[in-house]
């Protein structure tokens, strides 16, 4: 089993959105008075650390209603089984990635890189998951894996409505020759391109990363702690730059 990753202190990003992930893989908690949603669970062995982060924020893991899985790679589902068993949360996975998480998918760790688990809800494009006063919308965004999903919802921050979005599979590493030779579980370049076409039409104010380096999670935290206003995670221009970089990177594989 992969060694546990290091975890920073959990923190609030904005509104009811909290970071409970590791230094290399993101996990986000979205809270409400009617229960919580956890997005991704980091690497194998990280489940207890994610749970500790949630408790450190004074939230009860037992209030997690859903675990939303962005895609079926070991570094995003590694803690899912143990967290689901402890909390009773329903596991939600993109329809095309269900077999990968229930039977095992090819990853850097091989076919048994994580504890497989039974999916409670198959996610489809356009699905809505209600959470208190929020409606979390599911977007099927294939490319990184066939069943990769992203999520979007609105928040009201200081009187301003902000569109929050998390792109569940921004990594083009699955198309690198070394990973193709390993048979890493991935989608297609064509699907990735179509996903970018779609994402470029969305209005995004607050964007979250499936890995913290994607949206400079910790750099923005430093600014937030310094009292920078408005909240540094409100970054629509950064979102556009990110998509442009992905488009350039995609072209290098074609």
H-E order: EEEEHEHHEHEEEEEHHEHH
Distance between the termini: 35 Å
**CATH top-level class:** Alpha Beta
Alpha-carbon Rg, integer: 17 Å
CATH topology: Metallo-beta-lactamase, Chain A
Please state the structural category: alpha/beta
If you average the pLDDT, what whole number results?
Answer: 94
Uncertain residue segments: none
The largest pleated sheet is described as: 7 strands, mixed
Question: Fraction of residues in helices?
Answer: 25-40%
Number of domains: 1
Number of helices: 8
- Strand residue content: 15-25%
Trace the largest sheet across and list its strands: 1-2-3-4-5-6-7
CATH architecture: 4-Layer Sandwich
What is the molecular shape?
Answer: globular
Number of strands: 12
Task: State the CATH superfamily name.
Answer: Ribonuclease Z/Hydroxyacylglutathione hydrolase-like
Can you offer a commentary on this structure?
This protein has a single domain, classed as Metallo-beta-lactamase, Chain A. The protein is α/β, with parallel strands linked by helices. Strand 8 (128-131) and strand 9 form a beta hairpin. Helix 1 (47-56) packs across helix 3 (80-87). The chain contains eight helices and twelve strands.
């Amino acid at each position: 089993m992969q060694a546990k990753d290091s975890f920073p202190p959990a923190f609030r990003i904005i509104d009811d959105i909290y970071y409970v992930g590791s230094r290399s893989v993101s996990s986000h908690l979205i809270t409400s008075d009617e229960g919580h949603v956890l997005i991704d669970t980091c690497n194998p062995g990280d489940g207890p650390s994610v749970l500790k982060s949630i408790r450190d924020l004074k939230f009860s893991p037992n209030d997690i209603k859903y675990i939303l899985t962005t895609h079926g790679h070991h570094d995003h589902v590694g803690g899912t089984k143990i967290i689901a068993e402890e909390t009773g949360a329903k596991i939600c996975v993109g329809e095309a990635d269900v077999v990968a998480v229930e039977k095992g998918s090819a990853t850097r760790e091989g076919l048994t890189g994580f504890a497989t688990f039974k999916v409670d809800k198959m996610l489809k494009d356009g699905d809505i998951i209600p959470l208190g006063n929020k409606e979390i919308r599911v977007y099927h965004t294939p490319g990184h894996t066939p069943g990769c999903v992203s999520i979007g919802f609105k928040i009201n921050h200081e009187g301003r409505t902000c569109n929050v979005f998390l792109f569940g599979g921004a990594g083009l590493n699955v198309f690198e020759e070394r990973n193709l030779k390993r048979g890493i579980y991935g989608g297609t370049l064509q699907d990735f391109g179509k996903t970018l076409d779609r994402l470029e039409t969305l209005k995004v104010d607050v964007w979250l990363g499936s890995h913290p380096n994607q949206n400079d999670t910790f750099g923005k935290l430093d600014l937030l702690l310094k009292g920078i206003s408005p909240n540094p995670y409100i970054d629509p221009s950064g979102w556009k730059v990110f998509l442009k970089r992905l488009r350039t990177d995609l072209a290098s594989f074609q």
